[in-house]
From TrEMBL:
This is C4-dicarboxylate ABC transporter substrate-binding protein. Residues 1-28 form the signal peptide. Gene3D superfamilies: Bacterial extracellular solute-binding protein, family 7 (3.40.190.170). PANTHER family: BLL6794 PROTEIN, PTHR33376. The keyword Signal applies. Pfam families: DctP. One of its GO terms (biological process) is transmembrane transport. It comes from the Bacteria. Keywords: Signal.
């Protein structure tokens, strides 16, 4: 067991040391050396940002530059964002802790990779609201308080209007025909697949193409953006056109890094991220519409469920995902249901 654990620990420590070494190379960089001096003659505060996905992935490739540009422009040069990289610079499983411990300052992440440390964050998937609506109905404030208890400032969402879909090589006529199908899964829809009597399979992203090609799996779950560029649609025939769940992508910032900014710049950062969310939602709406059209042009056939199966499927999704929260955070689940207007 240790021979598998030790290399990962060594890799994580090495990444952290390299990041810290990079910080130390510039005495004006980083919140620790610039606390209380934002915008002063000592120079701008440099904030280090890490992404759980590769920077050229369809999800962050335009969102990180857009947010970075807004921050640097609207804070008038008081802050610069240094994009450290994606998972090649810091392992995905270590990024949440790296932000809350101050190894890096900002993380573009998803709760799939830190939900075991903060189970209530899985509720992000269950929100039927837009980011703007979440800021109005109290859910954003609730989650902000929960993140603050983890030494984090919740700035907002960076991915929305990108629900999940099931992609398959079996042309089904009814929902029940998914029974027994082997699908590549992850924690987001694992329980849903089990409830449908499917067979969830653990497959690394780099092995999905081969697994589909060799018929080791019959399909997979994923949003619209990504599978075509990954080549997966070359070996996938059908898309079940039944979107489900919300995204769970968050912009999280280390508390000390946030507090290193002036009060005025803290408020600007929160406000510009709110505006960013509106642009982000419209961006992904358009990208998903274009992608669905492109998929059909490339030969992927869309399957529509009957109204009865559609309702049944959505009820299963909600029941299973809320069931996870009921077990994980029994002291919070009633408040979350109230905020997210869930009344089964």
């Amino acid at each position: 067991m240790f021979k598998f654990v030790r290399p990962r620990i060594f890799l994580s420590l090495l990444c952290c040391l390299l990041l810290l070494a990079g910080c130390g190379s510039n005495s004006a960089s980083g919140p620790a050396s610039s606390a209380g001096s934002a915008g002063s003659s000592s120079g701008p505060v440099e904030l280090k940002l890490v992404s759980f996905l590769a920077l050229d992935h369809p999800f962050p490739k335009d969102m990180i530059p857009l947010w970075k540009e807004k921050v640097e422009k609207e804070l008038n040069g008081a802050v610069t964002i240094r994009v450290v990289g994606g998972p090649e610079s810091l392992p995905v499983g270590d990024q949440f802790d790296a932000v809350r411990n101050g190894v890096v300052d900002i993380g573009f992440n998803v709760s799939s990779y830190y939900g075991h440390l903060m189970p209530e964050s899985h509720s992000l998937n269950l929100s039927p609201f837009t980011p703007a609506e979440e800021r109005e109905n109290g859910y954003f404030d609730y989650m902000s308080d929960r993140f603050k208890q983890n030494n984090l400032v919740y700035l907002g969402r960076w991915l929305s209007e990108s629900p999940y879909y099931f992609w398959t090589n079996k042309k089904i006529q009814a929902l029940d025909e998914l029974k027994g199908s082997k699908f590549r899964s992850n924690s987001t829809y694992h329980e849903v697949m089990l409830a449908l009597e499917m067979v969830p399979m653990e497959v690394n992203p780099g092995d999905v193409y081969t697994s589909l090609e060799r018929k080791m799996v019959d399909g997979f779950g994923f949003p619209l953006l990504g599978p075509r560029l990954n080549g997966w649609t070359e070996v996938t025939k059908y898309l079940i056109d039944e979107p489900f769940l919300n995204q769970n992508a968050t912009i999280l910032m280390n508390v000390k890094a946030f507090e290193s900014l002036s009060s005025e710049n803290q408020q600007k950062l929160l406000a510009l991220t709110k505006d960013f969310e509106t642009e982000m939602v419209e961006y992904f709406k358009k990208e998903n519409e274009k992608e669905k059209q492109t998929l059909q042009e490339k030969g992927v056939e869309l399957i529509k469920l009957s109204p009865e199966d559609s309702q049944k499927f959505q009820e299963i999704v909600k029941r299973e995902k809320w069931g996870v929260l009921e077990k994980a955070v029994p002291d919070q689940v009633n408040e979350l249901k109230k905020l997210l207007k869930y009344n089964p």
